[in-house]
Fold:
Amino acid sequence: MKTIQASLLYFVFLAALLNIGCKENKKENQSETEMVKTESEKNHIEKSAFGETPDGQKVEKYTLSNDNGMEIDVITYGGIITRWTAPDKNGNYEDVVLGFNDLESYFGDVPYFGALIGRYGNRIANGQFSLDGETYTLAKNNGPNHLHGGVKGFDKAVWNAKTENTDDGASLVLTYTSADGEEGYPGKLDVKVTYTLTGDDQLDIHYEAVTDKPTVVNLTQHSYFNLSGDFSQDILNHEVTLNASAYLPVDAGLIPTGELRPVEGTPFDFTEPKAVGKEINADNEQIKRGGGYDHCWVLKETEENLGFAASAYHPRTGRLLEVYTDEPGIQFYTGNFLDGSLTSKNGGTYGKRSGLCLETQHYPDSPNQETFPTTRLNPGDTYSSHTSFKFSTK
Ligand code: BGC
Structure:
């Protein structure tokens, strides 16, 4: 009896709580900006207009923030993170991701700053793969190869957005339907990406997708971090750790050769924190191919669901970024192709190696490499991938 009473009380309490939450949403929805508040997790989300695409689609900006002072701007164009503030050792929050102030700058040929990448993060050799005896030809947008989903990948799509209250607080839920045949991929793919900023400066990203035909999927997030908060500096003094004892060597077109090569004794050993610049110009064939680091590391299996994958630490500011994931690989890219031709948010330019990317993913070219973990998705199954970026200071 007591249990029933307790359950009833709990129910009434929950209903009251939900009702308060709804009222708050409703009230705020009527105004220009939408606020979703979850007191328990101390985070909230605010919405504002961010312009229009050339074909007239409206783009919105959602600002995810918590009570510590972290703010993350996500736009519905490409699901792009345009701004992300993180604390330094004195508690100052500064923007630590490369990007632009205005929407127009994201059109055209930009190196995927902050974007959601799909259907396939990274390269597929010769823009081609076979499934069940059928060959599919993809857009070739990187020499002879296919990169990051093609000419119009998910980074250039306008996503639908809504906010949602979850156990972890207010989340931004982005959805996009990629038509059968888009950029050459088979199957209609329904994609959902959930961004949740927690009360302890952690951004959780959950990717899900379902298809109506067998296909391949490999989603990731392409933020370029510069933990100094000063985009005129390079990232060579950042100390990086990668939880990997092997990496995937590549050919001249940056396609993995299929080998899993031990990092030990090579410039690719980041098992202990190491300054990015220490061996980035080493006389090493693989380093030369990437013009620096531009490779996928094979993450060690961990006990946890979400295992430690990587960290980056900036000594002067004390900023520490940790990456956790359930993916088997991480592309560590040191912004080698940035060349100063793009104007930064503070009016300077993004020079060579002014940002580093830690892209959690399945291995590049998996659809053509039988020994790699599969990226195949069948109808009836749900693609699920989870990554968390956590900021703190040290
Ligand atoms: C790739 C680089 C590429 C960059 C921007 C990274 O994920 O590994 O080779 O230049 O994305 O496209």
